[in-house]
Design a protein that fits this description.
CATH superfamily of the largest domain: Glycogen Phosphorylase B
Strand content: 15-25%
CATH architecture of the largest domain: 3-Layer(aba) Sandwich
Largest sheet: 6 strands, parallel
Oligomer: single chain
Shape: globular
Length: about 350
C-alpha cells in the first residue's frame, strides 16, 4: 500500500514530539513493506497514494487541502494540544477577546505573516479554526488519539460525540524506540535533574529553572527555543543560576547518554497529549515527576509521580524524592515498542 504521512511544514525546522511520531510511523510501516512518503504541508502528494495519514488536528490549515481533495482513505492522528493555559499567561488580553480557537486562528495567520510557516488558504481564514477542525474530523475515516482524555476533549469542544466520531475513533498510544530499552550500564553514577523539550510557555520550563536555583539542584535543560517565543527562551536563561546547563535539541543517542547520567526527569508542561519523553526516561531507569495535567494524568500514570505544579511545596518534594532515586515500579516496556504500536496503526488503516 502507498501511504502519505502529512504533517506541518516546520516538522524538521522545529522538531518536536510529532517529529518522532511521524518518523517512527514511517519507519515501522516501511519495515512491513508499505511504500511511505512524508509530505510536509504545501508539498504535492506523490502519485499512486492510496491512503493519507495526517497529524495534528490543531493545525487544520495544513491538512484540509489534502483531506478535501484526496479520494482515498483518510486517517487523522489528532495530537490535539490545548494551548489555552499558556496563552492565558502569555497574552491574557488577546485570549480574553479571541478565546482558545480564535487564538489558534490568529497564531496561524501570524506565523504565515512572519515567514516562520506557510500562509493559510483563504478558505481557512474565512471559516476559522474551530469550523476547520470540525470539517477535518468529518472528512476523516479514522481518528486516532493517544489517550481517552484526548478523545473526550475532542468530543467536548466539537459536540461531535455521537456515533459518527465514536465509530471512527481508535485509541493507540505512542511507541518507545528500541534504543531506549537497552539496559543502562550507569545505574550507580546518576545525579541531577533533566528536562527535555522545546522551550516555550506551554512546556513551563521556567518554573523548574527558578526552583532549581532556589533548591540548588543541578539541572540540564535540553531543547531549542520556539522560534515564535524567543522571549520565553530569554526569560529561562535569565532566570538560570550557576547549577543550570542549557543544551540544544539533539539526537537519540545523546538523549540516552544524558538520561543515563541523570537521576530524575521532570515534565512541568501545562499540557501534553502523551509525553513520550516521560516513557523513554522511565525505560532508561530514571525517576519521572510530571505535572498532573491533561492528558499526562492518564498517559504518564504508570511511570511517573504526578503532582499538581500549582502546589509548589508538593512538587518540589516529589523532585527531591526523585533525585534520591525513588521511582515507580517498572512496567513491561516491551508492550509499548514501536513494533507493537505500528501493528495497531496498520489495523486502523484496514
Amino acid at each position: 500500500m502507498n501511504v502519505a504521512l502529512i504533517s506541518r511544514s516546520t516538522l524538521y525546522k522545529q522538531p518536536g514530539g510529532d517529529t518522532v511520531q511521524v518518523e517512527r510511523t514511517a519507519e515501522g510501516l516501511r519495515t512491513l513493506g508499505y511504500d511511505v512518503s512524508i509530505v510536509l504541508a504545501g508539498q504535492t502528494l506523490p502519485k499512486k497514494v492510496e491512503l493519507i495519514h495526517g497529524f495534528n488536528l490543531g493545525r487544520p490549515a495544513d491538512l484540509l487541502p489534502y483531506f478535501k481533495s484526496f479520494k482515498g482513505k483518510k486517517v487523522l492522528s489528532s495530537v490535539f494540544v490545548d494551548y489555552s493555559l499558556a496563552d492565558k499567561k502569555r497574552a491574557p488580553l488577546a485570549y480574553a477577546i479571541l478565546g482558545g480557537h480564535g487564538m489558534e486562528w490568529m497564531k496561524t495567520i501570524l506565523r504565515g505573516l512572519n515567514g516562520s510557516d506557510r500562509m493559510p488558504t483563504a478558505g481557512y481564514l474565512f471559516i476559522g479554526q474551530r469550523r476547520s477542525m470540525k470539517l477535518l474530523l468529518a472528512l476523516s475515516d479514522c481518528v486516532i488519539t493517544s489517550s481517552m482524555s484526548e478523545y473526550e476533549r475532542i468530543v467536548s469542544w466539537s459536540a461531535s460525540g455521537g456515533k459518527g466520531l465514536r465509530d471512527k475513533h481508535q485509541l493507540i498510544p505512542l511507541g518507545i524506540d528500541d534504543a531506549f530499552l537497552q539496559i543502562s550500564n550507569n545505574q550507580e553514577g546518576r545525579a541531577g535533574l533533566l528536562m527535555v523539550g522545546r522551550l516555550e510557555y506551554l512546556k513551563n520550563q521556567k518554573t523548574i529553572i527558578e526552583w532549581a536555583g532556589e533548591c540548588n539542584w543541578p539541572l540540564t535543560v535540553v531543547g531549542d527555543a520556539n522560534v515564535n517565543q524567543q522571549d520565553y527562551y530569554k526569560a529561562c536563561t535569565t532566570a538560570a543560576g550557576p547549577t543550570i546547563t542549557f543544551l540544544p535539541y539533539t539526537n537519540t543517542n545523546e538523549i540516552i547518554r544524558l538520561m543515563d547520567e541523570h537521576q530524575c526527569l521532570v515534565v512541568p508542561s501545562l499540557h501534553e497529549t502523551y509525553s513520550l519523553v516521560g516513557w523513554e526516561a522511565a525505560a532508561r531507569g530514571m525517576a519521572v515527576v510530571a505535572n498532573k495535567a491533561a492528558d499526562m494524568s492518564e498517559t504518564l500514570e504508570p511511570v511517573a509521580e504526578l503532582v499538581n505544579i500549582e502546589n509548589k511545596e508538593d512538587f518540589i518534594q516529589a523532585i527531591e524524592i526523585g533525585l534520591k532515586g525513588q521511582k515507580k515500579s517498572q512496567v513491561p516496556f516491551k508492550n509499548f515498542t514501536w513494533d507493537a504500536i505500528i501493528s495497531r496503526i496498520v489495523k486502523a488503516y484496514h
